[in-house]
Amino acid sequence: MYHVSGLKYDCANDLMVIPSYTEEGVVYLNLIPTFYPGIYINMKYTGSLRGTEAAEIPVKREHFIFYPATKDEKSDGVPPGYYHYLIEKQVSLLCKYSSSISDRNGQKSFVEDEAKFYLQKDGKLSRVRRVSNYLDAFPRWKDTINTFVEEHKINTLLTLDRGDNEKLIEFINIISTR
Fold it and tell me: Angle, to 10 degrees, between the axis of helix 142-151 and the axis of helix 162-176?
């Protein structure tokens, strides 16, 4: 693990960058994952206590990892890049954020695209959009998952949101340890 002061994530280009201070100013250097495969990011958000004292308050720890994606995974819609661990267990849930820069009438703006969710099982990622993706990934527990989905009123036709994905992953981790 590397501790770097000033580490930033360039989500428009899906790269980690660090500032390099030169006589000409600040230049951001890319941490290209193929050259630095061991890099992962642990971020700790800090704040001040009551807005007056400069005290560090740990709020939440986030874990991101660069995932290279195999040729088969790329063809299944798993792009290489940085992924955010939402649940890190035997069966994990990761999220891929993407952004773009929109140029309308000469006005550039930063646009966040919809987050995409991925299931990590046996070290491999697969995109999850609907309940059917979970049923395909865990055919052994098809009936159990369907019962859980009905009891928790999870829509089987719509794209799953973060909350429903988290419920399903937590449930799958419980039944997989039985």
Answer: 140
Could you tell me the CA-to-CA distances from 62 to 41, 58, 65, 170 in Å, in that order?
8, 11, 10, 18
- Collapsing DSSP to helix, strand or coil, 114 comes out as coil
Going by C-beta distance under 8 Å and a sequence separation of 6 or more, which residues neighbour residue 114?
A: none
| Cα–Cα distances in angstroms (integers) from residue 80 to residues 5, 48, 60, 91, 123, in the given order | 25, 36, 26, 20, 14
d(CA 137, CA 128): 10
Torsion angles phi and psi, residue 172, rounded to 5: -65, -40
pLDDT digits (tens, 9 = 90+) for 135-144: 999 999 999 9
- Cα angle value 101/77/114 (rounded, 5°): 40
60 C-beta neighbours (distance < 10 Å), count: 7
- Going from N- to C-terminal start, the domains of the chain cover 8-176
Summarised one tens digit per residue, pLDDT across range 105-118 is 888 777 788 899 99
DSSP labels, 123-158: TEEEEE-SHHHHHHH-GGGHHHHHHHHHHTT--SSS
